[in-house]
Amino acid sequence: MTSSIGTQGPETPDLETPDFETLDFEAPASDDSPLLALEPGFAWRFFDGIRRIPRPSKQEGRIAAAVEAWAAKRAFECAADAAGNLVIRVPASAGHESAPAVVLQAHLDMVCEKNAGVEHDFERDPIAVKVDGDWVKAVGTTLGADNGMGVALAMAAAVDPEVEHGPLELLFTLDEETGLNGAQALDGSLVQGRLMINLDAEEDTTIYIGCAGAAGVVARLPVQRVMARGGRRFTLALRGLVGGHSGVEINTGRGNAVKLLARALVLALDSGLDFRLIHIRGGDKPNAIPREAFAELYLDPDEEQDWRQLLGELTSTLQEQLGGADPGVSFSLETDDGPPRSLPLDPRSTFSTLRLLDALPHGVVAMSQSLPGLVETSVNLARAASQESHLELMLSLRSSSDPALDGLGQSLASLCRVAGAEVDRLAGYSGWAPEPESELVALTASVYEDLFDDKPLLEAVHAGVECGVVAKRVPGLKAVSIGPDILGAHSPDERVSVPSVAKTYRWLKQLLATLTGGDLGARPAD
After folding, report:
1. What DSSP line would sit under 244-284, residue for residue?
2. Is 109 designated active site?
3. Radius of gyration for the chain, computed over Cα atoms and rounded to the nearest angstrom
């Protein structure tokens, strides 16, 4: 990419965390930060202040206090709910006092990851930054542009004299990254506006108009163990899968290691091979498709070659079935001569364990009827781990339809209970059903087209965005989600595009000016 800023900007020096109660977001920084040379100046100055304040999820007290102090200095009304979510009310620009109130929404927390060998304390140290061509990056850590840049854009719009706007409400939520927890606890009575611009999107050509909600099912299948009847112990391993995000990559056709390992073991059962299952495990996080899975077995050594033939044939079948999605899928059968950790399962427990794993669904359940190509509902068999007394399963569910999410949870719970498992259904958060014909969507798209002579994409994401959760607590709320190009979010490769920040701010400014006319955001009668 051709750089408008230079191939390599200076890095910030080591910094002491400022006194968050006296930090002045709008005053020039004293450390000659490379961000202060960037445009738009208001947005980058606010982001420069934000990145100085440690703000891990569940530890947002310092950034919240700094934002409240800024609001007080500006004489903006500020209110907080019991969860700590903030609403800052900004008076309208002169002449626009009767315009509908607009909510600018972003979250205050950030994901904290760093490269091996990097010395950084996310609870104490500011984020060191550098300008590299057209990108702003951190130095070995996550940058926090997700969603610090959204916070900065909202604060900039509130004070920039060039921005025409009606009454604004800056809604800053907490603890988004660990499950949208702040938004889920939001006191909806704090929010007066009924038009919301969420600033947590990561592509400047796209208006996000929907997202999936999430829920979970945890099942515990009781098992019995018996003395081993001879045989040799082996570990059957499935490796080489790509895995990926269980929301946005659930439709890629990538294999689930837990499911594929269970398929191999059920084939062995049906083929009459003699084995006893000791342990099975695979997967970890609910938002990740399992990449590896392992089973500890007692096998008849005389049948080892039959196992290798079965696994070889299944590998060929899977390579054909999965195609380019998982070209590296492979099984291995390795002897294990260490001391046994447990007795094997009895035949009935082996049967119920493997048949349940084989029967549970994984992948896309339904596609959206309103947005072609969008996954509406899906399930990820996220984790299987056998314990001494039971097999524990975790399934993560997503849907942009709350009824579909509830129905899927009920069906999965029923299937697990038929197998004899105890089941807990875990509450998650609401989806955001796409409304492509919404007046707010049409207006946001029209402003984009007028500014940039191009049509924006209208997309929904099969992952969590706070719009749906907030809308559940604020009746009648209409929302869109926009934002600048951010790559590598949640990793030390995170970076935000400088030209894209300028483009997004220009879009936001014009959208706010356009919304000062008409009654699009009229609040419904109580």
Report:
1. EETTTTTTS-PPPHHHHHHHHHHHHHHTT--EEEEEEEE--
2. yes
3. 26
pTM beyond 0.85: the answer is: no
Angle at alpha carbon of residue 385, lines to 380 and 390, rounded to 5°: 115
DSSP per-residue letters across 136-175: EEESSB---HHHHHHHHHHHHHHH-TT---S-EEEEEES-
Residue 387 carries which DSSP code?
-
Query: φ and ψ at 111, to 5 degrees?
Result: -80, 135
Query: How confident is the model over 440-489, as pLDDT tens digits?
Result: 999 999 999 999 999 999 998 888 889 989 999 999 999 999 999 998 88
| Residue the block writes with tokens 């930060």 | 33
**Distance from chain centroid for Cα 521:** 29
Mean pLDDT of 236-257: 89
Q: What percent of the chain has pLDDT over 90?
A: 74
Q: Quick check: 292 pLDDT over 60?
A: yes
Can you read off the two tokens belonging to residue 292? 């590896």
| 435 flagged as catalytic | no
Catalytic residue among 175, 176, 296, 376: 176
Answer yes or no: are the C-beta atoms of 104 and 171 closer than 8 Å: yes
**CB of 371 closer than 8 Å to CB of 210:** yes
The one catalytic residue among 60, 68, 109, 164? 109
Rounded CA separation 192/304 (Å): 69
- Indicate whether 102 pLDDT > 50: yes
CA distances from 260 to 150, 306, 393 (A): 41, 18, 15
Do residues 282 and 382 touch, judged by C-beta distance below 8 A?
no
Number of H helices, E strands in the chain: 11, 23
What's the distance, CA 10 to chain centroid? 31
* CA–CA gap between residue 480 and residue 471 (Å, rounded): 11
Distance CA 174, CA 189 (A): 17
3-class DSSP state of 518: coil
List, as one string, the DSSP characters of 184-252.
HT--GGG---SEEEE-----TTEEEEEE-EEEEEEEEEE--B----S-EEEEEEEE----EETTTTTTS
Distance separating alpha carbons of residues 46 and 63, to the nearest angstrom: 12
